[in-house]
Write a structure and sequence with these properties.
homodimer; 210 residues; mainly alpha; Arc Repressor Mutant, subunit A; Tetracycline Repressor, domain 2; 2 domains; 65% helix; globular; DNA-binding
Chain lengths: 210, 210
DNA sequence: GCATCAATCTAAACGATGTCAAGATAATCT
DNA sequence: AGATTATCTTGACATCGTTTAGATTGATGC
């Protein structure tokens, strides 16, 4: 999470803000964390940043474009989290599970941000570029490639990455369901639950069998 | 898809509608299919049903409650689709894949409805009851139980069901991404792509290994 | 059959939202 | 310094979810 500037008030701020784009994105994230996604209106963001409702339109074409910027920051934060998880695990087997757990935990800890990242009400049918090029997606693919010793066809590698990503995303969206509470309890906590589900996915059974 | 009554016009419809609750839900689904989720406002639904903007409030507490009813219909439709897929497959192995493919295809063919079904802006952290009790979730669990010959601990059965559901949901949300187009092409169509991903998930590796 | 009552619908309004057009203000360039 | 451009504000518009008050109808009891 980047450092956030304090909300500007009328007396501290000059007519020209200086870096309103960034301030707006930060204000948006602040609102997301404190009041949830329902409260995230353009006007509320402008209010939080201390400017008029029309000011954002000089920096973003749309409300969508602001959200895109917020999502972008989210993907970068996810990158950081996954990199850390990857570095922490020693063997390649554990590394993969660790990645999955980190992914789901990121979604659990930043539910509002995660939702913005996957909100497809604006760009209907494409992944964010951030995800494909040099982003989290590649980290997963590289980890898989590493784990299988590089001896997997490009198509299989891509398929395995997609499979892993889908499983992670599905779990990320459901981890909060309270119907799972007894199961988590029985398994000794949420992380144990996560690991158990990932094991059941046996995501690399096919790759291992050749 | 249930039969839908035609949109009522001022001259055909008496002051009292007769069955406005149902008409509203049908109007909502009609809007979802033709204009997408962005156009689904309460006022638009009322307009489509031929009544005043305030009329829905005599049948639903909220906009959320209307959407809940729409989602309920969605879950029932999903039940039907899964039941059909289950009946069509002969052996229990194929039956499981068939279930998964049917699930994802349902989401692909009813993207707007699927989104409403999973929209957690109203009831944050619980699955719809429809899903757990005697619904699609049970169909998946039963199919897994059947496939493993019933010799699996309740916890493992539940975990496997969750794992399968997460994978299906994740794939359902991503199937439309155009980045997957070349891969689909290479594998000979979308269904082949789906099956390939499901195979890579190897969802029952653990259960099979005991 | 008719009066009463509850259910259902409309009309009108309120505050909030996304967005745009005009005008004010400040930074930058020549 | 003067002109130009970028940035911000004011004020407005259509739309939305929701509420209140009043109109219309169906049902109920006599």
């Amino acid at each position: 999470m980047p450092a956030m500037t304090q909300p500007a008030t009328a007396d501290t701020r000059p007519y020209h803000h200086g870096d309103l784009s960034r301030a707006l994105v930060e204000a948006a994230r602040r609102i997301l964390e404190t009041e949830g996604p329902a409260a995230l209106s353009l006007r509320a963001v402008a209010r939080e940043a201390g400017v008029s409702p029309a000011a954002p339109y000089h920096h973003f074409k749309d409300k969508s474009e602001l959200l895109e910027a917020v999502a972008h920051e989210g993907w970068m934060a996810l990158d950081v989290a996954l990199t850390a998880a990857r570095a922490k695990a020693s063997d390649s087997n554990e590394r993969m599970t660790s990645l999955g757990v980190a992914y789901v935990c990121f979604a659990r800890d930043n539910p509002a941000l995660y939702r913005v990242m996957y909100d497809r009400s604006r760009d209907k049918d494409s992944l964010p570029d951030q995800m494909k090029e040099e982003g989290a997606y590649c980290q997963v693919r590289n980890t898989i490639d590493e784990r299988t010793g590089g001896g997997v066809s490009p198509i299989d590698l891509e398929l395995a990455t997609i499979a892993a990503w889908c499983a992670g995303h599905g779990l990320a969206e459901m981890i909060g369901f309270k119907q799972f509470a007894p199961l988590k309890e029985a398994l000794g906590g949420e992380e144990a639950f996560l690991r158990a589900v990932f094991e059941h996915l046996g995501m690399f059974a096919k790759l291992d069998q050749g």
